């Protein structure tokens, strides 16, 4: 039976940060991680570049946290985005701020973020143990230790559950923390995918499958209430089954409750041009093409992989001579360039989500310490808690902030 002051279950963003600050505070600390390498999910964040945080103030993070934002106030006040930036740069990892105030390592390598956290853990005196926790022991309502899968255990007075959610299970996020929390009497709110692709009623053809549209406009409308709930510009990936890409993943967080047919996604292929400007350009292109097939004009307006789908939706034959295209047909093409509509049928599975919405109820966690209100010496950090942020570095910031607060508490 090993002994420690604090055991942290999970070696992801929250767990590693908690390990660093716990050890720096003089605690004999062990981070237990079941994967061979800690920080596995960090490797795939930000498309392998790792969007560490967002260069905004505390209110900016809370505004981008639709579920549990106010709960995070104390954690963010204790360890803010500016603290995160200073932490990494002071420890040898140069950072840069890009569009949308997203912060990345200058190297554009997520592995550098993981290496920094692991190195700081070890240099701070925190032990990283590759093992799987099978249960948490209590005595008289307080933490007394953890059970490991090899039959051994660790005696300790405090445990931080930082196991992540259920998204991307291949990275080790298999929902273990929810089971531990339930066994200890905690409520786990329903788990649903967030920041996830969506399936649509209408389907694109095989040519367009996987096509990445850059700098397009997206508007999501809640048709049951007749109002727009999300507007953004960025990347959208077309799929045979629906839509993906950064903008769509962010939009999915607003589609609650999910009901088939309730949400409509409108895609503007030319958001930088007004309808008048675009119509003038379209007229010039059609006039110049003269007897060439209309399909040739479309090549100047969109990726070739989208042309056949566009022709099908516009009802204007791709083989029709440009000089024969009527004003009414041109108006129909113009309208479609400014708005391709898709009806959302469902969210993709939670395994494809960036984060899990739902988790350990924040009503049962002290926001000023991250300590359980039910079990003495039990703390929570990161995505296992029922908060939910948008993309842009906010989820990792919440993980770092809750991990630090749990550690110093």
Write a structural description.
- The protein folds into two domains: 2-192 and 357-408, FAD/NAD(P)-binding domain; 197-348, no CATH class.
- The radius of gyration is 25 Å and the shape is elongated.
- It has twelve helices and 20 strands.
- It has 409 residues and is α+β, with helices and mostly antiparallel strands.
- Strand 15 and strand 16 form a beta hairpin.
- Helix 8 (275-289) crosses helix 11.
- The longest helix is centred in the last third of the chain and has 15 residues, at 275-289.
- The protein starts with a strand and ends with a helix.
Number of strands: 20
Q: End-to-end distance, in Å?
A: 25 Å
Largest sheet: 6 strands, antiparallel, barrel
Overall pLDDT level: 94
The chain-level structural class is alpha+beta
Looking across the biggest beta sheet, what order are the strands in? 13-16-15-14-17-18
In terms of per-residue confidence, which ranges show pLDDT below 50 for 5 or more consecutive residues? none
Helix content: 25-40%
CATH homologous superfamily assignment of the largest domain: FAD/NAD(P)-binding domain
